[in-house]
Specification:
The protein is α+β, with helices and mostly antiparallel strands. The chain contains 4 helices and 5 strands; from the N terminus they run H-E-E-H-E-H-E-E-H. A 5-stranded mixed beta sheet has the order 2-1-3-4-5. The mean pLDDT is 95.
């Protein structure tokens, strides 16, 4: 799928966000290695700790459908600034999509991208949980 179609899907997904408390709408489109798209938008709760980000919604949808290999995740908010993933989203992307390219876009067409390793250097990963055998 070309980037223009992803941008349209990203805008549509972002506009569906349930951000009734903050008004800050975010959309994400996660692209698998085989080209399948999974969308997500933020969903807020009056108990703010229960709010879930767009990136995690898209990732959880993909994982629940059996996807395990990811190419890119596109992220856009409803302002004209880049919206990088929060720390929790960065950790989950590192855990389940360590090769993903994070593409930040704005409605006016600005774009930048990072590897997840650039966004989460010196990450806590599965390797740190594995006990060394002597």
């Amino acid at each position: 799928m070309n980037e223009q179609k992803i941008l349209e899907k990203l805008k549509h997904t972002r506009d569906r966000a349930l951000a009734r408390y903050s008004g800050f709408k975010v959309g994400a489109v996660l692209v698998t290695k085989n080209g399948k798209l999974y969308t997500g938008h933020n969903i807020e709760s009056s108990s703010y700790g229960l709010t879930i980000c767009a990136e995690r919604v898209a990732l959880f949808k993909a994982l629940s459908e059996g996807e395990r290999e990811f190419k890119e995740i596109y992220i856009m908010s409803n302002n004209d600034e880049f919206c990088p993933p929060c720390g929790a989203c960065r950790q989950l992307l590192m855990d389940y999509a360590p090769d993903v390219q994070v593409v930040l876009m704005t409605e006016s067409g600005k774009k930048t991208s990072y590897s997840i390793e650039e966004l989460l250097p010196v990450a806590f990963t599965e390797k740190r949980l594995i006990e060394k055998k002597s």
